[in-house]
Every structure is written in C-alpha cells, then in structure tokens.
Design goal:
Blueprint: H1 6-19, H2 22-25, E1 31-36, E2 48-51, E3 68-73, H3 74-80, H4 84-102, H5 107-113
Parallel strand pairs: 1-3
Antiparallel strand pairs: 2-3
Helix pairs in contact: 1-4
C-alpha cells in the first residue's frame, strides 16, 4: 500500500484535475471537488463519487442551488496503487469517471469506453 498524507494527496488530485482537457472541465457548472479519506461505509472499493443531478436529468437549475460534488477518496486509491505513477493514473481515471456522471454518462457507457 502506498502512503501519502492528506495534503499531498489533495495536491496530487488538483494537479491531475489541471491536466484534464479544457473541453472536459469548461462545462462544469456549480461543481466542487472534495477529497475525503474514505467513503462513509469505509469500503476500499469506491474511488470516487458524483453527488448531484446530471445535466441530462435537470429540469430546473439555477441560483441558490447547492453545488454538485465530486468526491475523491484517498485511502482506497492508496490501497490500490503501488507507486505514484499508478496513483496518478487512477486519480485521473476517477476524475474522468465522476465528471462523466455530471454530463449524464452512466457506468455501462463508461465500461464500454474503458473508463470504469
């Protein structure tokens, strides 16, 4: 298991987010990215989570709405990765996966595309 403190992991997530293509992140509206240690159920299998309404499911959305959240979980990533290169690859995949949910792309399509 790879070890990395929470601050270093958050910096790595920000770096990977900055490396994503502009056309992927430009459409993100009212979305916050959060790093947490682990999911509430303490599972080590969930790397990230999108909490909100996908663009394809919104019938109304506007001022005063709480932001959607994309959560990246530190401990499951560290448990699954042997080195920093592998960790960066997995964080990248997690970010793309959760951003795809924002755009309304479901897990079946993500599996088909190789992102799940």
């Amino acid at each position: 298991m790879l070890e990395m403190d929470p601050d270093a992991f958050e910096r790595l997530v920000i770096e990977e987010l900055d490396l994503l293509p502009d056309d992927m992140v430009e459409g993100l509206d009212n979305v916050v990215f959060v790093v947490e240690d682990r999911p509430e159920d303490a599972t080590q299998e969930l790397f990230g989570l999108y909490e909100g309404w996908a663009l394809t499911e919104r019938d109304r959305y506007g001022m005063g709405e709480l932001p959607d959240r994309i959560v990246v979980y530190r401990e499951p990533h560290l448990a699954a990765c042997a080195d920093e290169r592998e960790l960066r690859d997995e964080v990248h995949t997690t970010l793309v996966h959760e951003i795809a949910h924002f755009y309304g792309i479901d897990d079946d399509k993500l599996h088909e595309l190789g992102w799940a």
